[in-house]
Write a structure and sequence with these properties.
The protein has 358 residues and is an alpha+beta fold. The chain contains six helices and 20 strands. The protein has three domains: 68 residues, no CATH class; 143 residues, Immunoglobulin-like (Sandwich), CATH 2.60.40.1600; 107 residues, 2-Layer Sandwich (Ribosomal Protein S8, Chain: A, domain 1), CATH 3.30.1370.
Length: 358
């Protein structure tokens, strides 16, 4: 096992250096003043601290070296990103192809598994980049990783757990492409912001094979053949249609409601969120449309009862894959904080209902 002071090389990527500190299963490897966070299991020991010290001592006794003040800048330099191995360029590598991927460490137990985050740089260019995230309720972004990735390589960014996902409703990457030792065609700086459907991390079928990975992953194409991932752009006519459609959904009389979703049992309100209780037919509706309709119904009931302190509301969501329940818990943890939340009576509803007390 590698330890602080060991000189190591990276198992699955080019580069290496001396381990300066270890936090959990992450080693921070110093290469010319630039620390690279790397999984401990990806570090291969080249020399122990004793061997390194002897080598330095021998060099100092036999040769009068040129004194070089070490850099204390936290900014990565092109020299820190390069290695002794030559970069093998390919014609297709002149176009940027960048992929962000999340790989589960235990795909058979997604509810408890952690996930490794990787950035794949399939090009002849070095990339300065930052990887950021924020929740829908946050006003600002959090930097999760900043550094340089070499050409034609993937870099490990971080390991995340299920508890980290609520803060990752949206992710962003900023990138600048360059070559350090030759002329190159200038690429425009790239800044991508996109939504991350965190419910996919708990669905087995959302992890798929990818040419860059041996295991199944959730992959997001950030840049494809020099074309960055684009946000959807709506013209004025599309925006007007969208507003009208939203108003139609928000207007109860306009919905094709099959029957009343709420019922009372004593002082308790029961709300059935099964989609067949909300609409006559789901023809033409995507899974996202269905989920949004269910969340709208949940919000309508919550908003109508926020002033009724002590009111008990049972939301019947069913067991299924747990997508709707996860969405409700997210709403209760962020939009409707401070209310008592518990599983509803198993005897009455099984595992498929959640009780909220205002």
């Amino acid at each position: 096992m590698a330890k602080i002071g060991d000189r190591v090389r990276f198992l699955n990527s080019v580069g290496g250096g001396i381990i300066r500190r270890i936090e959990g299963n992450i080693a921070y490897v110093d290469d010319d003043g630039f620390e690279t966070p790397t999984l401990l299991r990806e570090c291969v020991v080249v020399a122990s601290p004793e061997v390194t010290e002897k080598k330095v001592a021998l060099t100092q006794d036999d040769i009068k070296p040129t004194v070089k003040t070490p850099s204390v800048s936290s900014k990565p330099s092109p020299a820190a990103a390069t290695s002794d191995l030559p970069i093998e360029e390919t014609p297709e590598g002149e176009k940027l192809n960048v992929v962000l991927a999340y790989e589960p460490n235990d795909i058979k137990h997604l509810n408890t598994s952690t996930f490794d985050t990787y950035l794949v740089n399939d090009s002849n260019y070095y990339l300065y980049f930052t990887y950021l995230s924020r929740s829908d309720e946050a006003n600002g972004w959090t930097t999760r990783y900043a550094g340089v990735v070499e050409p034609n390589i993937q870099v490990f960014l971080e390991e995340i757990a299920g508890a980290d996902l609520p803060s990752m409703d949206r992710i962003a990457l900023q990138m600048i492409a360059f070559k350090s030792d030759r002329e190159f065609k200038l690429k425009s700086p790239i800044a991508i912001e996109t939504a991350l459907d965190t419910t996919k991390f708990f669905k087995l079928h959302c992890f798929r094979s990818n040419p860059y990975f041996d295991k199944e992953v959730i992959a997001i194409d950030i840049v494809t053949n020099d074309v960055p991932r684009q946000r959807m752009v709506l013209d004025s006519s599309q925006l007007e249609k969208g507003i009208k459609a939203k108003k139609a959904i928000d207007r109860p009389l306009k919905r094709p409601v099959k029957k009343q979703t709420q019922s009372r049992r004593g002082d308790r309100i029961e709300v059935d969120l099964h989609i067949n209780e909300l609409v006559d037919t789901t023809a033409g509706m995507s899974p996202a449309d269905i989920l949004n309709l269910q969340i709208d119904e949940f919000r309508k009931v919550m908003d109508a009862n926020l002033k009724n302190k002590g009111q008990k509301i049972v939301f019947i969501h069913g067991k299924g894959e747990g997508v709707l329940r996860a969405a409700l818990m997210k709403e209760l943890n962020h939009r409707y904080k401070g209310h008592d939340v518990q599983d509803a009576s198993f005897r009455e509803f099984g595992f498929g209902a959640t009780q909220v007390t205002i």
